[in-house]
């Protein structure tokens, strides 16, 4: 009886995992990888790296001895190959390359204003004036034009990546991914908006 229940539970777990693999889902890991590549190209040496913290041997031993580890192993066995086979998002279309090149050319002009705190990164993946007083009066028109052009490129970029990969419905999720990665890869001292829309200086 116990053996029958065990097999029944195992089959249930396998069935649930199989359902997970056939669902169409937003490829979050691939989106982050694509965002990081574009951000690093645009910001060059200014983009910071945020590697994942490795699991220590002690933590690994604790995980492997936990009661749920066997079931997690079943899920990982079935789902991991699918995730590993997940293709990268295509960011090589001519339009994406043109937008990225435009942002690269503009960045050296925006960089001093990011560093001074005059402008910052918004919670929706754009840029905005944070403290106009930090911008000399004679430069404000030019800075506003630069910000408008940058935001036009960023909006176009998120939509074009979604379309280039055959899923225009992914645009909002791509925007969220880029918004998060712009902030995470920004150098210390830059300003960004938190989830409440408040300006915060990165440490």
From TrEMBL:
Q: Which residues form the signal peptide?
A: 1-30
Keywords (alphabetical) are: Signal
Concerning InterPro entries, the annotation shows: YdbL (IPR008309)
- A Pfam family of the record is DUF1318
What protein does this entry describe? DUF1318 domain-containing protein
């Amino acid at each position: 009886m116990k053996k029958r229940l065990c097999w029944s539970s195992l089959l249930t777990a396998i069935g649930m995992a199989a359902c997970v693999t056939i669902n169409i889902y937003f490829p979050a890991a691939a989106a982050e990888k694509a965002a990081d590549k574009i951000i690093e190209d645009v910001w060059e040496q200014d983009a910071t790296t945020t590697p994942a913290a490795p699991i220590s041997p002690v933590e690994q031993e604790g995980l492997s001895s936990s009661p749920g580890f066997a079931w997690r192993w079943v899920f990982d066995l079935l789902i991991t190959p699918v995730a590993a086979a997940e293709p990268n998002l295509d960011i090589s279309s001519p339009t994406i390359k043109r937008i990225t090149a435009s942002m690269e050319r503009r960045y050296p002009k925006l960089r001093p204003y990011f560093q001074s705190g005059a402008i910052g990164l918004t919670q929706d993946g754009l840029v905005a004036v944070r403290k106009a007083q930090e911008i000399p009066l004679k430069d404000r028109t030019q800075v506003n034009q630069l910000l408008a052009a940058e935001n036009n490129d960023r909006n176009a970029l998120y939509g074009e990546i979604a379309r280039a990969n055959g899923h225009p419905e992914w645009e909002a999720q791509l925007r969220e991914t880029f918004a998060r990665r712009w902030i995470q890869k920004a150098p210390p001292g830059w300003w960004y908006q938190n989830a409440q829309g408040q300006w915060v200086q990165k440490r």
